Amino acid sequence: MFHITARGNRRQNIFLNDSDRETYLNMIKKTKVRSPFNLHAYCLMNNHVHLLLETIDHPPSKILHRLHLMYSKYFNRKYELQGHLFQGRYYGEIILNHHYFVSACNYIHRNPERANLNRFTNHPLWTSNCYHLHPTGEEGFITTELLDYLKPIYMKSQ
Question: In what order do the strands lie in the sheet with 91-94?
């Protein structure tokens, strides 16, 4: 399991509106079909993303390459740009235990709050927090089982 962070090139925005976020989330779903993985948490900030993913058959590098190549092509075509969208290679930390898993989920879900964007903390186009706190049955692309199991610890950390 990995906590992935990927930033926009020169820390520039990679999402200019919620339509871009929705497209990125749809591309995550498409990527999961070709390179299966479990996505436990996400946060889509303006200039970077956080993903908590558990690999199944493919290393995170293949998953992120496929996802970010697809999104970069979309973004550059939509905004008539060229060149790199993401700043170098993603940063990935290995999640070694349940404590770090809960801590990483909390960090990811509270990212908008730390950037004074509190109104987006539970918005599904910004974070997966709403799927964990208020399940609707529409969480298909989010894996909720592990965080559900650890929910008492997670709720204390909120």
Answer: 37-44, 48-55, 2-7, 91-94
Supply the DSSP symbol for 90: P
Overall number of domains in the chain: 1
Which residue range is the domain that position 99 belongs to? Answer: 2-157
Structure tokens belonging to residue 87? 């700043």
**CATH number, position 73:** 3.30.70.1290
- pLDDT per residue as tens, the chain (158 positions): 999 999 999 999 999 999 999 999 999 999 999 999 999 999 999 999 999 999 999 999 999 999 999 999 999 999 999 999 999 889 999 999 888 988 898 899 888 887 777 666 666 778 888 877 766 666 578 887 766 666 665 555 55
Amino acid present at 139: E
- 3-class DSSP state of 42: strand
